[in-house]
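Quick one: structure for this chain?
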Amino acid sequence: MEPPRDIFSYAKYRMNPAPFLPMSKAEMDRLGWDQCDIVLVTGDAYVDHPSFGMAIVGRLLEAQGFRVGVIAQPDWSGPEPFRALGRPRLFFGVTAGNMDSMVNRYTSDRRLRHDDSYTPGGEGGKRPDRAVIVYAQRCREAFKDVPVILGGIEASLRRIAHFDIWSEKLRRSVLMDAKADLLLFGNAERALVEVAHRIDAGEAPKAMTHIRGTVSVRDAVPEGWTVADGSGIGQAARSATGDKVVVRLPSYEQVRDDPVLYAQASRVLHQESNPLNARALVQRHGDKELWVAPPPIPLTTAELDGVYDLPYARAPHPSYGAARIPAWEMIRFSINIVRGCFGGCSFCSITEHEGRIIQNRSQVSILREIGEIRDKTPGFTGTISDLGGPTANMWRLGCRDPQTQAVCRRLSCVYPDVCTMLGTDHDPLIGLYRAARAVQGVARVNIGSGVRYDLAVLSPAYVDELVRHHVGGYLKIAPEHTEEGPLSKMMKPGIKSFDRFRAMFEASVKKAGKKLFIIPYFIGAHPGTSDEDMLNLALWLKKNGFKLDQVQTFLPTPMSLATAMYYSGHDPLRPVRRESGQVFTAKGLKQRRLHKAFLRYHDPENAAIIREALIRMGRSDLIGPGKQHLVPRGLR
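Got it. Here's what it folds into:
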């Protein structure tokens, strides 16, 4: 495999960064622009900060020499707001924002949320349901012949036919429904830069069918390609190799009509997720072929540093005035040090979007950003709120052998056990923490991202460093469950691993003479979870003195392995067979509420539903006033 082109190696012909990317014609006039090359449409407020994907995309395109404008949270009732910056010379880039619009708008029980942390004032309702589709349609209505390119997490996780919990049905690829020209998935900088320059050179985006990290629509598989069939139940599609091999997934119509084939499609998709050996995928939608190129090659450390060193204003756009944007308030003193996650948890979308290969920033770049926060961010009092990312402690961790990594098809580097080829040395991260604390003007560096405890236990020095300097009272840990049944479907380690970390943490706390606590996170109603599993979890919580405030029930997000279990009743972690055992999932509202209630057994409002369940389960011995009881008796 040839190394990809450096994203900063393209010719640049305009190098005067705007204070903020313009959101109005007046701003364009002040910059001396008569037209934008690219207009980005986003469901979030425009915050010019590298924790906001749209800001990264905009500043990266600006660094390539393009004039980039932003239309943030437009009124989608008609096309006029999408004409606010005039006709873009090259294309519209459309994203729902940092969050999936449906996850942003609805709870796991499909109740409407009334707030939105990515909106000024935290106001809800400022983006449409299925924002990518709606925005793309309005862009097309505004300027019919301007290309529309989709990106961001909503588009990424809907790149193939997918189950949609909000409509309780299988939906087509979002590229088909949006009628856009191209879809970029994952961390899309590499594809985006190439696409932008090729459009600028006069190439139509619909002709760009072999760029890694893109999804396009074709009439047929082109000549010269070998099709490896992965559309049948149990087929691995591994026999064909070479540069021109494409793996066929079950068609949209097949997965729509046969849930077992949906599990098969999910399994094949995830097997073809390592960018070092993944092959292209093709999925028939009616009379068209959806062509999914292999995932993008991860950015090098130098490239990632370049992305985060771009001239961000590190603030919300001035048009918002004094309005508070909760997401910005939460992250303005935090720093992303990594991308990706090799945990592979079946319910999580991080791996599907960012990949399993960790992309690391250099220590020099991270320390430079700390200085930027200190010098430029209003309200900084000396505390960095986080050095993290999807996981706090994966910086500079990864496969020790490039040849092994190039052929590996494991879905997780840490499940069922930590891979013997995985480098787990936390010493560089400890060094980073110490260097960050030493930056002039920095009084404290907290770690706010969740710690992967099965890795942390391999480095007692790391646990000590956390306890002594980087935990502000509470540390977030996500064991997710205590029982082997659900844990095996989640691809999470057994509870003994958490117990080991907790013992190490508490020993370090005692040695440091501090008062610190662990906040564990758990999931109810995950595929593979029975009522008995939730009861055992509740008893474990009581025994260990945990009274949780924040709890969650499983939400089947598009494309995850756990969603395939939820929809199909089959386990795509193993070869799919019709005769294989069914995976039970709590789907009814009453049972889902019971699972959530078990997580908050101590809340009086949950006592009645738990009592009813305990009687049904033959566990009336757990009802009463004693310490051994889970809930009190009800009033007669």
